[in-house]
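Re: the pair you flagged

First of the two:
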Amino acid sequence: MVSYLKIENNKLVESNLEESKVIIYKKPDRDEMNYLVGAYGMDEHNVISSIDPDELGRIEFEEDHIMFLLKRPKDYSNEDNLLFKVTSVGVFIFKDKMIIIMPEDIQIFEGRQSFKLNSLLDVLLKLLFGTISHFLGHLKVINMISDSLEQKINTSMENKFLINMFTLEKSLVYFLNGINSNSVLFEKMKAAAARIGFTPDNLSLLDDIIIENTQCYKLAEIYANVLSGITAARAAIVSNNLNVLMKTLNIITISIMVPTFVVSVFSMNVGIPMQDKPFAFWVIMGLSAVSIILTSIFWKLKRW
């Protein structure tokens, strides 16, 4: 799917192919990628890298355009089973046109609604801000889910919730890698500011972006460390809950076995005392009750 946008009144608005300044390719097929390579002279590897989630963020200077490869969170779906993944977005800036290639249909221009757009480089910087905003939004969701799982694990002895915690921890590893990859890209952009064509205002915004990304990385790192500690603690809690349950079951089992033993002795097919007495039944039941009381006292003295 292809979208066409243009800059109008400091905003991006929908346009047609002739007037468009920003062209967005969402989930491009093989024919569309071949068209981009042939019509715009893009490197085929760079085009493919734009939809490859395993590629690292980078910047490449070509003869007539600059290629930026960003990392951003993949939109979550129920099929992911609490695994938040990171994907790639390729941005190709020509003299009077920007082409964006991404592997899914997502909103890429997020955050800072007052961001004014006057050039394609402004659009690029807004895209960078949107990427950081997207990471922060997903981190908040991960934190909310982990809080919910903590409460469930405290009273559960199943592995289900613990596995979910491990999955979230794995997601944060992906996030840390993606945010760090963007950090390297931003520093390279700052070092090559003159070659890219950044104005002093653009450089000021880029500095803000670097600070925001650093804070985002620190937040993800804190969440990862906290979740790692919580996961280890909750694993111990699940094990302890199981031990408590087994102890309780053993106490109940032994408590039942003692009066059962008393009754079983008087049920043997041999001569026993009081077998002809009418009150023998109540004697046996009394002995069973006494055995239960003595067993309970024993457990209490042992503080079990």
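Second of the two:
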Amino acid sequence: MSQYPAFPTGCESVSAVMALRHAGISVSVDEFVDHYLECDPYFYRKNGRLYGPDPYKVFAGDPRSEYSCGCMAPVIENALLRCVGKKNVVKNTTGEALSDLCRRYIDQNVPILVWATMEMRPVGEGNTWILPDGREFVWPAGEHCLLLVGYNDKEYVFNDPRYGTTVAYEKEAVEVAYAALGKQSLVIE
């Protein structure tokens, strides 16, 4: 599935919907965003500083806007839990090595939501803002969520919502990008 044109910053939601559909749960990206994903598009300036939402708690912005940021694994985990109820199990596998996840899930034909970067490029420093708790947050420019669906000796294979197709990236580049985003991953078992 492609995130374009409707969800230019919605890679997390599109990847989640692909995983849901693989698990036999029929939901559209519109339904997922409108009914399950918590979004907070409210950013404001005060005394020359930018203030905004915590992307570990809500989607920072609106996935339908090209000017939004995105969210991290706990936000999608909560949305998935609201969506699936007790039908399936949503597991936060953050911190686990991709090689271990592949053996445990991909080998059993279970895809994995993975936070990395677009085209596995080095992560950059994006906008900086103050979170509601007063901490400063720097958005990891290039952040991207993809659905890991396969692997071989040299590459990891993803359904990449940026392209709307299956794409393979070199293992080393994926592991660097995955680590740069805190080794965030989710599975629907």
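Residues 11-22 form the longest helix (12 residues).

-B.
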